[in-house]
Amino acid sequence: MKLQPQVPEQVEAVAGPSRESDPPRVPSTVTPSRQAQQPSQAGTSARNLGQPTMPAEADPQRVPSTATPSRQSQQPSRAGGARDKQLVNALMFMIAKDNEPFRIVEKEGFRYFCSVAVPQFQIPGKTKITYLMDKKFSELKPLVKDTSFKDIDYICITFDVWTDTMNHKSYLGITAHFMENGKLASLILNTVHLEERHLGVNIKNKVEETFKDWGLRTLQIVLVVTDGAANMVNAANLLTGNEDKHLHCIAHVLNLIAEVVLANPFLAPLLAPVKAIITASIQSYILSDELRDAQPPGEALKLMQSVITRWNSEFYMIQRFLKLKDYISGVLINHPDSVQMISARKVSELQEVMTLLEPLEEMTRHLSGLHYVTCSAVIPLVNCLRATIQLKRPESAVAVAVKAALLAEIDRPDRFGNIELNQNLMMAMILDPRFRQDHSQHPTHVAAAFTKISELVSREDMVAEVENLDQAAEEDGAVHHGLSLHHETIRAQRNSSRNRTIGGMHRELRLYLEEKTIPTKHCPITYWMRYKDVFPSLFRVAKRFLIMPATSVPSERLFSQAGLILTNERSRLDSQRLSALLFLNSLSKEKWNL
C-alpha cells in the first residue's frame, strides 16, 4: 500500500542590536539648507523581547540611496504612511522567512535594489528594524494565542533537546499540534535555553512554564511524542501523569531497525568499498571533476557521504552511488592507482539490498509529514512494511541475510511486534475512514479499541446532554441544584446509554464502521467535517486522535531552522530572540496580517 499525503491546508538570527547609531537615511529631495537642519542622533536598541523599547531617535536615520539623480528626484513617501508601513512589514516578513540578518538593511546590494525598485522607500536602520521585529513578535503572539487556542479542546506536543555546538548551549524545542478551522495546524510554542541538567523533571518544568505562558493546560494534552531517551520519556510521563499519553517517535523506531541491520557484519564487505570510492572521489578534485564532466551538462550529481546519526543518509548514499555507477566506473578505469570500482556482482547485491530498504525509507518519509494525518497510518504501514519485505525474493546471500534481519527487527516486541497493543495508534486507525479496522491482525485488540471508543463517545454524549440541560434551564429560568441536580445527571446518563446497542458498541461507532472506506489519497479530516452532524459525538472523539503526530520530526525541523539562524555572524543572539525569530518564521502570510 502506498499512501499519498493529503494536504487539506498549511531568522538569520540576529545578534543583539548594535550600540552604534543607524546609518544615514535616504536623502530627501529638499534643498541642502533644509537637509542641514536634520541632524542624526544615536539610538539605543531593544534588548527585551516582548517589551520592545523604541530607539532614542524620534525619527530613525535611514540608509542612503544609491539611485541615479533622476530616481532621487522622486518625492519619498512620508515616514509612517500606509505605504511605508506596508513596505516595512514586507521587509520584516522577508527577514523572518528568509533567515536574513537585521544588518541586511545596511548591505550595499540590498540598498541599491531598494533605491531602484522602490526609490520612495526610506529604509529603516538596523536599530529600528530590530525594535520593529521585537514589536511585531509582541503583537502577533497574543493574536495567535487568541485565534488558535481560544476554543481548543485537545492538543498534542512534541519536544526535543538540541545543542548549539558553536556557542555550547542547549535548547528545548516545543511544538504544538491541534485542529483549527477544520484543518490540522501546528505551532512552535517555544525554543528555550536549558541551563539546568537535562533531567526529566527540568524538561517537564520548562514545558509547564511554556503552557502557562500560552494560556494552555496540561490536561488538554492527549499525546506527547518524543524520542526514546530516558529523560524525554520521564518528562512526558511527569507532564501528563499517564504513560499511555506518550508515544516513542515512530521515525526513531524505524531508524533503530535500519541501524541494526546496516551495522551487521555481513554487510561490511559490501559497503566498505563503496564508502572508499565515495571518500576518494570527494577528497580528489581530479576524480570529482572528471565525474562531473562525464555527466550530461546541467544534470551533474555528486556522490553523497553517510552521516552516522541518520540511517537514511546511508540509504541515500547507496542510492546515489547506484545511480552514478556507470559514470564512476568510466572515471575510475582511467586511474589504476586509485580505488577500484566494485564488481558487477557486488553492484547486483547492492541493488537487492536497496529494494529491501526502500519500504523503510518510504514509511519514514510518509510519517514525517506535518500537514496531514499520520498517527492513524502507523499500524497499516507497519503491516504493509512487513508484507512487502516478506514478498521479496532476493537471490544473493547478503540480501537474504538482510531480509531475515529486517523481519526479525520489525517483529521485536520493543519495535513493532506489539504495535497493536498501543491503543492510541489502534483507535486512531479505526477512526480514520481510510482504514477503520481493515489492517488489524488481532481481533481481540480491535475489540478492546471498540470498547474504549464507545466509552469515550458515551462520555461525549453525556457532556452534550448536560450542556443541553443547562441551556434549557437558562432559557426556562430554572436552576438545578441538590437532589434535582443529581436527578438530571442520572437522566443524562440514561439518555446517553440509549445510544448503545446490546453488544456494547455505541450506535454511532457501529454505523460508522458499516460505511465503506475512502481512498487513501482522501483526507480523513475532510471526511469528518462532512459527517460531523451525522456522528456528532464520534466526531469529537475522532478529533482527539487524528491530530496526533506519529513522529517528533517537527521538533527536529525546528532545530534545523535554528541552525540556519545561529551562524558565526550571529553568535551573540540570545535565546529569547532566537525563539521569537523561529516563531515568526513559522507563521503564514495570513497570520502576519500583511
Question: What report would you give on this structure?
Answer:
This protein is α/β, with parallel strands linked by helices. It has 4 domains: 32-140, no CATH class; 149-249 and 552-592, 2-Layer Sandwich (Nucleotidyltransferase, domain 5), CATH 3.30.420; 254-418, no CATH class; 423-546, no CATH class. It contains 25 helices and 5 strands. The chain has helices spanning 32-35, 69-72, 82-97, 108-117, 126-148, 200-214, 230-240, 250-262, 268-283, 285-294, 311-323, 325-332, 344-367, 378-391, 397-410, 413-417, 423-430, 443-476, 482-497, 507-514, 524-531, 536-546, 553-565, 575-586, 589-592; strands at residues 155-164, 169-180, 183-193, 221-226, 246-248. Strands 3-2-1-4-5 form a 5-stranded mixed sheet, with helices on both faces. Strand 1 and strand 2 form a beta hairpin. Helix 5 crosses helix 24 (575-586) and helix 10 (285-294) crosses helix 12 (325-332).
How much β-strand is present in the residues? 5-15%
Tell me the radius of gyration.
Answer: 30 Å
Number of domains: 4
Major sheet details: 5 strands, mixed
> Which structural class do the helices and strands define?
alpha/beta
Q: Tell me the distance between the termini.
A: 42 Å
Low-confidence stretches: 7-51, 55-76
Number of distinct helices: 25
Tell the overall outline.
globular
What's the mean pLDDT score?
A: 84
Strand order of the largest sheet: 3-2-1-4-5
Strand-and-helix sequence, N→C? HHHHHEEEHEHEHHHHHHHHHHHHHHHHHH
Helicity, as a percent range? 40-55%
Please report the total strand number as a whole number. Answer: 5
